[in-house]
Design brief:
- The protein has about 280 residues and is of the alpha/beta class.
- About 45% of the residues lie in helices and about 15% in strands.
- The chain has 12 helices and 8 strands.
- Helix 3 links the parallel strand 3 and strand 4.
- Helix 1 crosses helix 7, helix 3 runs parallel beside helix 4 and helix 8 crosses helix 12.
- The structure holds NADP nicotinamide-adenine-dinucleotide phosphate (NAP).
Length: about 280
């Protein structure tokens, strides 16, 4: 192990952070969860909470919430990186997003912080279909999205966690930017078809307009900032710019990334999508 102090995992109860913690636990390495529900609490919206979360920490895995592209996020992550370095954190591994100008600005802030850095620049997560956005529509049997028929190389968050823990615990990853994607690109319709096959259920995929999407989400009382974020991702980021697959998982881990069908089968077996 490169460093043996405590690892702060910001977003440690989220999709990637939870898995990073599981892997640190398996290795018997000390960690601290950074989230609003942790003790001490860490809140991106309350800078006063940051120092206590950073106390005694030598390295951190940093995920922002809800997305580095929301207004004010860049300033917050920059301030956090700078404070972390002032407080003695040596190594920062940052979860970034592919195809987002704001994410690349956050990456530059990280590089300028003076920390030993690694960047995980990720495509759209496979687990969005089972742990967030799309779970309810899948359970309801119809997924309606304002998305073009673009292909996206969905990345498995277990691969992200494997790369994060490797970068945190093994030498040779400082100053490395890993673009993390799955091994093939598929449309959202293809992804839903794979999930339908894996579950044996009938699940329809329907394309709707952004206006129809907004109206439906407002009716479901989804907060407007979340609706704006999803519409931004679907209209701007998911325009085909991220379709090419990247080799970050292979470069970081020396093995190929997990395929979407592996994710679909594994996840169907948990029963989360019903029978
Ligand atoms: N989802 C994707 O497909 C995708 C793709 C590429 C990049 N990314 C990037 O990944 C990052 C995380 O996104 P995600 O969707 O995977 O989320 P996530 O990690 O699943 O988010 C939930 C985590 O954030 C914590 N959290 C929520 N609000 C917080 C706050 N105000 N202060 C501190 N912690 C807070 C939650 O814990 P508490 O509720 O306890 O606070 C929980 O640990 C984003 O920056 C996004 O840009 C996501």
């Amino acid at each position: 192990m490169k460093q043996n102090g405590t690892t702060l995992v910001v977003g440690g109860t989220g999709k990637t952070g939870r898995r990073v913690i599981e892997r640190l636990q398996l290795r018997g390495l000390p960690y601290r969860v950074g989230s609003r529900s942790a003790q001490p609490a860490f809140d991106w919206e309350d800078e006063k909470t940051w120092s206590s979360a950073l106390k005694g920490v030598s390295q951190a895995y940093v995920t922002y919430y809800p997305d580095v592209c929301v207004p004010g996020a860049l300033e917050k992550v920059r301030s956090f990186f700078d404070l972390a370095v002032r407080d003695g954190v040596k190594r920062l591994v940052f979860l970034s997003g592919r195809g987002e100008v704001e994410a690349e600005q956050a990456e530059e802030a990280l590089k300028a912080s003076g920390a030993d850095w690694s960047i995980l620049r990720c495509s759209f997560f496979s687990q969005n279909f089972s742990e967030t956005f799309f779970l309810e529509p899948i359970l309801a049997g119809e997924v309606a999205l304002p998305v073009r028929p673009v292909e996206e190389p969905f990345v498995d968050v277990d691969d992200i966690a494997d790369v994060a823990v490797t970068a945190l615990t093994q030498p040779g990853h400082t100053g490395k930017l890993y673009e993390l994607t799955g091994p093939r690109a598929l449309t959202f319709g293809d992804a839903i078809d794979e999930i339908a096959r894996a579950t044996g259920r009938s699940i329809q995929f329907v394309t709707i307009t952004p206006e129809e999407y907004r109206a439906g989400m407002l009716q479901a009382q989804v907060p407007t900032e979340v609706i704006d974020l999803v519409l931004y991702l679907f209209s701007t980021v998911l325009d085909g710019r991220n379709t090419p697959v990247a080799d970050g998982v292979q470069r970081a881990l020396g093995r190929p990334p997990r395929d979407f069908s592996d994710y679909a089968k594994r996840t169907a077996a948990t029963g989360v999508w019903g029978k």
